[in-house]
Amino acid sequence: MTVQSTGTDKYGRTLANIILPDGRSLSQELVRQGCAWWFKKYSKDQALAKLEADARQKKIGLWADPNPVPPWDWRKSQKDKGKPAVGELVPNGVAVVGLLPDPVGRDEGHEAVEIGNNTDQAVDLAGWKLRDRAGNEYRLAGTVAAKGRLRIVMTTPTMPLNNDGDTVLLIDPAGVLRCRVEYTAEQVRAGKWVESSSR
What we know:
This protein has 199 residues and is an alpha+beta fold. The chain folds into two domains: 2-68, CATH 2.40.50.90; 94-195, Lamin Tail domain (Immunoglobulin-like). Helices cover 15% and strands 30% of the residues. It contains three helices and twelve strands; from the N terminus they run ββαααββββββββββ. The protein has a four-stranded antiparallel β-sheet with strand order 9-4-3-12, with no helix packed on it. A hairpin with a 5-residue loop joins strand 10 and strand 11. Helix 1 (26-32) packs parallel to helix 2.
C-alpha cells in the first residue's frame, strides 16, 4: 500500500491518496462498493462522482438504505444538540438574497452571501449572523445601503455553504430571526449564485 500525501487540511491533518498493492485507489474502491460518500464540497474528482452515482443506482452498501444520512450532516446534528432554537420568523426588509456555495476554485474562504435591504435606511450588520441547519454560525459585518445590497465573502470558515443543499438563517443582534433561505443540491453550480427564495 502506498500513501501519497496531497497536503494538510485546516486542522493540520494530513490529506493523502491511498494506493492499494494492485494499483487501485482505496477511495475509488470504497465509493464503488457503496461504503463511502463522495464529499463533493472538498473533492472535484468526477471519477468519484460517477462511482457514487453507479452505487446509488445499484442500491449497494449504504445506498441500500432509502434515506442515508451524510456523515457531515450527522456530525453537525450532534454539535447542534442542546443549542437553543431560533424563534418565529419576523421579516423586517433585510434578507439573504443570494448565495454562492460553489465558487470557482476552492470553496473554503471564497463562498459568499448577498444581503438585501428593502428599507429606507442603511443597516449596520454588526452583531448580525448567519446560522445553518446544523447550528454553525458566521458573523456578519459591513453596512447595507438603503434599498441596496451588500456582497460578503465568507473568508472565515465557520459556516460552510453546503453544496448538497442547506438552510441558512439570518439573525439580528437581538436574536430575532429575520430571514430563512433554503436551497437544494440541484441549484448549486460552480461559479453561479443561487438566488434565494427567502421566507
